[in-house]
Task: structure prediction
Amino acid sequence: MAAPQTPEEITRMWKDAMAKGAETWAKILGQGQRPDIYQFWRPFFDQGMEAWSRLLGQGASPNVLQEWKKFQDEWVEAWAKVMTQAMGTDTFAAALGKHLDQHLSAVGPVRKQMTEAGEEYLRALNLPSRRQVADVAELVVSLESRIEALEEKIEALLSRQRSAGD
Amino acid sequence: MAEVGVNSEIERKLLEEMERNLKRLANTAALVARPDDPPVGLTPRRLIYRRNKTRLYHYPAQGGSPHPIPILFVPNLGISRPYIFDLSPGSSFIEYMVKSGYHFYLLDWGVFGEEDNRLRVDDCVLDTLPRVIRRVLRHAGAPGLSLLGYCMGAPLGACTLALHPDVPVRAFVNMAGPFDFAKAGLFACWLDKGVFDVDRLVDTYGTMPAEMVRLGFKLLKPTMDFSTLTNLWWNAWNDQYVAGFKALNKWANDYVPLPGEFFRQWVKDFYQDNKLLRGELVLGGRRVDLANIRCPVLVVGAREDNICPPACARALLDAVSSQDKEYVELPGGHISLVAGRQAANNLWPRVSHWLAQRSRG
Result:
């Protein structure tokens, strides 16, 4: 994807990221329908605005920006803790497992078909498949390992001979 | 008059902020429009052993009188790359240790491919690690070595020591390495055998794909990307911060896959059945008994670690037979324990000092 060049593009990317985040969360939590991103993130913003108003209510300070950053960090950290608690439940773990199962059910047959079709195509062209190349690589690794074991044995024998000679 | 003073102070701050905003815009625009590949891993090193994807690097000790006992550092296998330990000059654990007079050996497991999917924990513990240990001892000409394990590297290292009591190990350091998987936080919950079908995943993909590893770690702290980006914007006026961000960001998005059979065994034996701590783990037909470890042991836990919570790492201490054992809990998370400014002030000097007392010839 091309890097954003204008503020409008950056804003659009940000909105897309927010929408994707809301959709991912909705999927994980087992809510089938596409969420309204503004409604979804609303609790985050409400909490933020409330704390921001409180901060402003304390009067202007020269360090207002530092305080804002501090508040923002605490706010995000508080949300991280809430999320961690929610994600540590059996319900969430079960939803995640279910989501993975659904994903594998969809991906598994497609991958199998594609691999078979790919292998068929390569065989027709008289070319090795990815699996066959991996098998050869596995053989090379095993040979490398055997040579190394032999080297070590020879070194041990030589060292024993040297010490016997001394 | 006082009010005028406050207002002028606010004005000054606002002007300063405007200047910073211009710098922020320039730096972030450069980051987005001209992303470059920041140099990482700059501490001088030499490759002394290679086998398949695995590499063993030697970082020679710097300074006058080096410690006679070298360090073998075993990081995690898969998931991420080990250059986080040598990110950039001044932000490098390895650089710190070599400047403290240690000969440092880094085991880089490498990026595994499809041909490695049959690799198991047994191969790492019974074959790769003993060979690497022999290479380090021979290369250093030392009577012994200290073994440092980070994350998954710690249980792999501990299994090796437990099954090879003849290894002349002078000290073992567990840096945020999981041992009691019942206390392994969110991952223990998500990988529970009642909800996570590891067989189906490995049978489908043959491997644990890097993209899935990335998703798992991102989900662990969903606010992380938001915090990273707001912190970047906040500090983007500072060129030094931006340079550090680039290097760290490169690492943070550089996920690598895990070999399929290794991942299956890792999830089943370690996460789901907690066999290592229960003394039920069998590798190559031999039972792994952590009580066979008798050398000095240091366990370092990170207070805010959500991958290996402190109790999960600390459990090693009760399992070993060592007389000289110590537990230290430091601020930070799984990564900030070992990398970054906090690590430079806490972990690095702590480990270096503890090892120095146990690294005499």
Q: What stands out?
A: Chain A touches chain B through 49 residues (CB under 8 Å). Residues 128-166 of chain A form one domain. The mean pLDDT of chain A is 78. The CA atoms of residues 67 and 73 of chain A lie 10 Å apart.
